[in-house]
Amino acid sequence: MRRLAPQDLRIEAEEARLLILRMLRGGRSGHVGGALSCVDILTTLYFDEMDIDPLEPTRPDRDRFILSAGHKALAQYAVLARRGYFPEPWVDTYSDLGSRLAGHPDMHKLPGVEANTGALGHGLSIACGIALGLRLQERRSRVFVVLGDGELPEGSNWEGAAMAAHHQLGNVVAFVDVNDLQISGRTADVMNMEPIADKFAAFGWKVRTIDGNDVEQIQGVLAEVDRDSSSPTAVVAQTTKAKGVSSLEDTAASHYWKPAAAEMAEAEAEIRARLQQLSLQTVAR
Amino acid sequence: MTAAPELVDPRKTFGQAVTEFAADDSRVVVLSADSGVSSGFGAFRDRFPGRYLEFGIQEHGATGVASGLATTGLVPVFAAIAAFVTNRNYEAFRNDVAYMGQNVKIVGRNGGMTYSDLGPTHYSLEDYAIIRMLPGVVVLSPQDPGEIRAAARAMLTHEGPVYMRIGGPAIANLFAEGPFVIGKGRTHRSGDVATVVSTGPATANTIAAVDALRAEGVTLDLLCMPTVEPVDAELIIESATRTGHVITVEEHYDRGGLSAAVSECLGPLRVRHDAIGLPHQHVITGTYEGLLATYGLDAEGLTRQLRDIVAAGRPASAK
Predict the structure, then answer these.
(1) Matching fold, domains B8-172 and B186-311
(2) Topology of the domain covering B186-311
(3) Using the beta-carbon criterion (under 8 Å), do B68 and A108 form an inter-chain contact?
(4) Across-strand partners of B138?
(5) Measured between CB atoms, which of B61, B68, B69 is closest to A156?
(6) Cβ contact (<8 Å) for B53 and A167?
(7) Identity of the residue in B65, B70, B76 whose CB atom sits nearest the CB atom of A163
(8) Sequence ranges of the domains in chain B
C-alpha cells in the first residue's frame, strides 16, 4: 500500500482518462460514460490503497478488485496498464479479433483481472466468495468491488448484500458508482433504487457517502475502513457520468460512445489541458 | 426366493463420500442454500462446522460465492435441489462457473421426477440438456450407491467445473464397486439385437427390462453411462457399429440430455436411434412409482417399450 498525494492521484486519473479515449481510436465504440465516472475510484484503489504487486498478480495474499459493472472495463484496462500489469501498447488491441481486452474483462486473458464480469449483478456474490475463502485461509487480504447504480435492480445484488452482512465480511468494501444514468435515461426514472445508502445500511453494512470523483474523499473514506470490523462497507460514490469530457458529462448518450474524429480530438485536448495544469500546480508546490 | 436388495439413501451416500474425502483435503468446503442437511451434509456440518457455509434460500448468489471461493484455491461443493441449482442460477453457472473455468462442484439432488408429489416446479427434466451446453463442464449421473461414492471422489479430484445429479429415493447396488473414470461407461450386459444406453437411477429398471427381454430370446447390449458429458463415444460407437440400433433410456426429457449426447456421437454412423425418456410436455404429479409407470419408465414399461422399439427396428423379414 502506498500513500500518494491527491495531486498525484488526480494526474494518474487524467492519464487513465487519456488511455480510455485511446482505446476508442480507429472508429471504435465503448462504454465510456461509466468508465469515466468510476476511474477516480479505480485509480485510488490501484495506486494508493490495495496491497497488490503487478509483477506477481496472483500472489495469494493480494487484495482483490472485482468490477461488477463489467461494461466499465475501459477504466480497469486503463488503470491496469498504468499500474504496470501489462504493456501500455496492449490497449491499442482493444476489441480486436481475439483480443485480451474485450468489451468486458476476462480473468484468463489479462493479468490483474480477478473475475469475468459484465452480466450485471454478479460481482458482489463473487466478491463475497473470495472474501470468505480468504478468511477461511486466515489471510488478511481485502476485496474491493465497484457496482453501478444501474445494475442495482438485479436481485442478485441483494443476495450478495445479505450474505456479506450475515457472514460478517468486514473484508469487503463495495463502491456504488452512482452516476444517476443508464442507457434509457435517469436511473431514478428507469427504476428508482434510492435511497441506496439506506438499503445497504438496512442490510447491516457500514455506509459512507462521498463525491466519487474527488480522490481526496475516496482516500478519506478508505482510511476510515476498519479491516477488523465485522461489517462490510458500502461507499455510495456520487459521480458524474463521463466525468472529465465536458461535452459528454451527465448525458445518457455517453453510456456507449462512438466518437467522431473531431469529438475525440476535442475530448483529448480537454484532458491534456487539465493534465498540464495539474503538472504545473505540482511543480509550483 | 432371494432376499430383497438393500436400499440406501443416495443423498446420505453422497454426503458421506464427500465428508470422508474432505477429512483428507481441507480445501473442500460445502455451501448450503437452506438444504445442506437434506442434501446429505449433516455429518459434514457436524464434523467441519467452519467449512459448512449457509446462505439461506438463494441459489444464484451461492453459485457466485462458489466461484469466488474457488479463486482462492478452495474446492466448493454446492448441493441443493436439482431444479434450483441448474435453472434458477443458470446465468451464474454459465458465467461465474463455466466461463470462468472454476473448480466448482454443483450437485443437484432429487433429480428427475423424484419430487413426484411436489410437482413440475420441483422436477429437473432438462438439467442435463442445459448444463451440457456449457463448454468445459463435466456432467455426472451415477447409477448406484457405489458409483455415487466413486463419482463423488472423481468429482473432487477432477480440476474444473462439474455438475452431478443424484436422486432422492433409496436405491440398490447394481455393480461391483470399481475404479471410476470420468467419461467412461461400462458394458453391463452383452447382446447383438440392439444397444441400450442408460444413465442415473433409470439404469436399475433398464437392467430389469433388458433381462426380461433376454428371457424372451432378445439379447441387448446394455451400456451404463455414469457420465453424460463427455459421453463414452468410443464404447457407444463400438457397440452401435455391431448392433446397428441404439436406444437411450433416462429420467430426463427424451431430448437434449443423454439422448442428444449419444445422438451427436452417432452422427456419421447412420444407425437407428430411439430415445426413451419423458415426452416433451409438462408432466403430472403423484407418487414416484405412479409417475414411472405412467411414463413407461418402470421395469414393466421399459420392457414393453424396448420390446416394441426392437420389433419396429428389425428388418421386415425378421418380424
Answers:
(1) yes
(2) Rossmann fold (3.40.50)
(3) no
(4) B162
(5) B61
(6) yes
(7) B65
(8) 8-172, 186-311
Sign of CA dihedral B219, B224, B228, B231: negative
Q: What share of chain A is helix, strand, coil (3-state, %, to 5)?
A: 45, 10, 40
Give B32's contacts in chain A (Cβ within 8 Å): none
Residue among B74, B91, B96 minimizing CB distance to A133: B74
pLDDT tens for chain B, 319 residues long, are: 567 789 999 999 999 999 999 999 999 999 999 999 999 999 999 999 999 999 999 999 999 999 999 999 999 999 999 999 999 999 999 999 999 999 999 999 999 999 999 999 999 999 999 999 999 999 999 999 999 999 999 999 999 999 999 999 999 999 998 889 999 999 999 999 999 999 999 999 999 999 999 999 999 999 999 999 999 999 999 999 999 999 999 999 999 999 999 999 998 888 999 999 999 999 999 999 999 999 999 999 999 999 999 999 765 554 4
Residues β-bridged to residue B186: B224
Q: Identify the residue whose cell numbers are 475502513.
A: A225
Please provide the CATH number assigned to the domain covering B8-172.
3.40.50.970
Task: Report the distance separating Cα B107 and Cα B166, nearest Å.
Answer: 8
- The answer to whether the Cβ–Cβ distance between A159 and B61 falls below 8 Å is yes
Are B60 and A167 inside 8 Å of each other by CB? no
d(CA A151, CA B241): 53
Distance from CA of A191 to the nearest CA of B (A): 22
Q: Which H helix or E strand runs over A22? A: helix A6-22
Contact at CB, B69 and A124, closer than 8 angstroms: no
* Grid cell at residue B202: 433409470
pTM of the model: 0.95
Q: Counting one residue from A and one from B, how many pairs have CB atoms under 8 Å apart?
A: 104
For B66, which of A118, A122, A129 is closest by C-beta distance? A129
